[in-house]
Design brief:
Structural class: alpha/beta
CATH topology of the largest domain: Rossmann fold
Distance between the termini: 52 Å
Oligomer: single chain
CATH architecture of the largest domain: 3-Layer(aba) Sandwich
CATH class of the largest domain: Alpha Beta
Number of helices: 20
CATH superfamily of the largest domain: P-loop containing nucleotide triphosphate hydrolases
Number of strands: 18
Strand order of the largest sheet: 11-13-14-15-12-16
Strand content: 5-15%
Largest sheet: 6 strands, mixed
Helix content: 40-55%
């Protein structure tokens, strides 16, 4: 049973808990708390004849929390966020299991124990902590959405004597149901007494008499508040807090006039208000998230130092970057987040993204490329210029007009006044690296390289769940098993050069939505739940791109 829990992840843990609740050989029980460390946590116990698993629901939610299991000066280990901290939930669960083991030993009950922490937080250093958590016999599954609303079943079958014996042994550790009510009653009584006292003070004008005595204290508090505000301003540079309304920014139309006869449109992606949250939501991309944080942090630090110490030497930070990866790996999405992060850091004035490709520049008349490049750069001022499939500008022919576009871009990058812009070149890794190798000037001016790996099957399944959640859909268990099997099969036979990654998932889901809608129209379901439930009949066979046959020996 313990090994079964250790194999779970954020995609499978809910269904595994449901399976445990239906297993006739496993006693399961829901507890409202186990003192003294977990008296306010929902606890689920799973017991068979050999093992006991203690599952703790950690409903604390934070997008980025740093775990630390070390104790300092005898204090309990702490977890830290950007603005607060708390006692380690893993340490609390581990200590609780030690107390349970002692109780079971006194009752002559021998069971192998394992703890499982289910958390709504995201532990940014989870990989580094895995070894320590393993030593504490705790499996941690974080980043669980809506944990407070989970419905977890139990069987608490009294016929399973081992479970009943355990419950009897630890009964004095359980949070009594009346404890919370008594605390609430006590708190209510105290509140009523405080209110009555303040009311009497007001009637007797005692509060007015105290105003003169507190004037000096208020002056001192005002001075402290001013100092605090100055400290907070310095912190804001680092934290990226930004109150500028995005609606006040004027953006370009996206129309490029290559010549009098031809005009083309480019995409203008507006910045987002909460880019760090959107970056956290991305599936996978852990190395990219870390690298992006480092680049933005250094940029933000430069701004803070310039504001506080105008004469200090600034670190050289180039914002120009290369995004390497196959289609559907999130390059455009990350580029949009990148622009918004740089805007919050103060490196860009607008943060929008202008998305171009070879066709945006190459016209039909002499000079079209230069006119198009000038217009595109004007549009991208204050934001990001993203050139998709940039390697196509490096045509094989010596007089290919794309080479002129590269040279024009190099001239712009050499202009030190062009600081309010970031250029991002995107494309497949091999041809992009070839482009950079053939042009040493590009190599030096694009020092930031981000590689977007193909998604794994598990990551594609997680992306699937995120996408259907946008429409409030959910799979039945048979439908999910069918979908998961078909996706795994498609992944096995994919052509790595043409595989669409998240784009492939999006295309398959569109076919599922259409099939689901057609079925509902024909069957006229009366239950609203059925309208939002995807069944096996909705899962059509996947359109799987096959590997191209190769000719030769």
């Amino acid at each position: 049973m313990i090994s079964g829990f250790k194999r779970q992840n954020r995609l499978t843990i809910q269904s595994h808990l449901d399976t445990m609740a239906e297993d006739p050989a496993v006693y399961s029980e829901h507890l409202k708390g186990i003192g003294p460390y977990l008296k306010d946590n929902d606890i689920y116990l799973y017991i068979d004849h050999m093992c006991m698993v203690v599952v703790c629901l950690d409903k604390y939610e934070n997008k980025d929390e740093l775990a630390d299991e070390d104790s300092y000066n005898g204090e309990n280990p702490l977890y830290f966020t950007a603005s607060s901290y708390r006692i380690s939930p893993v340490w609390q669960l581990s200590e609780t299991m030690k107390l349970i083991e002692q109780k079971l030993k006194e009752a002559a009950i021998s069971l192998k124990m394992q703890g499982v922490l289910l958390s709504g937080s995201i532990f940014s250093n989870a990989e580094d902590m895995e070894r320590i958590w393993k030593e504490k016999n705790v499996t941690v599954i974080d980043h669980l959405d809506g944990l407070a609303d989970w419905t977890i079943g139990v069987n608490n079958d009294d016929e399973l004597m081992k479970g009943a014996m355990v419950m009897e042994a630890i009964k004095d550790m359980l949070t009594p149901p009346s404890t919370v009510n008594e605390e609430e009653d006590s708190s209510s009584d105290d509140l009523a007494e405080d209110f009555e006292r303040l009311l009497n003070d007001f009637i007797n004008n005692e509060m007015d008499h105290g105003e003169e005595d507190t004037e000096d204290e208020e002056d001192q508090e005002d001075q402290e508040d001013t100092e605090d505000e100055e400290d907070e301003e310095a912190y804001d540079f680092l934290s990226g807090e930004d109150d500028d309304p995005l609606s006040d920014i004027r953006y370009p139309t996206g129309i490029i006039e290559q010549n009098h006869n031809i005009s083309v449109r480019v995409d203008i992606l507006r910045p987002i208000a909460n880019p760090r949250e959107e970056l956290d939501k991305l599936v996978g991309c852990d190395d990219i998230k870390r690298r992006m944080d480092e680049l933005v942090a250094l940029t933000r630090y430069n701004k803070m130092m310039h504001e506080l110490f105008p004469d200090s030497k600034q670190h050289e930070v180039s914002l120009h970057s290369v995004f390497l990866g196959h289609p559907g790996t999130g390059k455009t999405t990350v580029c949009k987040i990148f622009g918004s992060l740089l805007r919050q850091a103060g490196a860009l004035s607008k943060g929008h993204v202008v998305v171009c490709d070879r066709g945006s520049f190459i016209g039909t008349l002499w000079g079209d490329e230069e006119r198009a490049m000038k217009q595109v750069l004007d549009m991208a001022q204050g934001g990001v210029l993203m050139i998709d499939e940039a390697y196509l500008l490096n045509g094989k022919h010596e007089n290919d007009p794309g080479k002129l576009v590269i040279q024009l871009m190099m001239n712009i990058l050499a202009d030190e006044t062009q600081r309010d812009i970031a250029i991002v070149l995107c494309g497949y890794k091999e041809p992009m690296m070839k482009l950079l190798d053939m042009n040493p000037g590009l190599q030096s001016r694009f020092p930031n390289k981000f590689e977007f790996k193909d998604f794994t099957v598990d990551e594609l399944l997680e992306i699937t769940l995120h996408r259907i959640k946008d429409y409030d859909y959910q799979f039945t268990n048979p439908a999910w098993e069918k979908y998961r099997g078909m996706l795994a099969q498609a992944y096995m036979v994919r052509d790595p050069e043409t595989w669409g990654n998240a784009r492939f998932v999006a295309n398959q889901l569109e076919r599922i939505y259409i099939q689901h809608a057609s079925r509902c129209v024909n069957q006229h379901p009366q239950d609203k739940h059925e309208l939002l439930t995807l069944i096996p009949e909705d899962i059509l066979p996947f359109d799987i791109p096959r590997r191209k046959a190769r000719i030769g020996f």
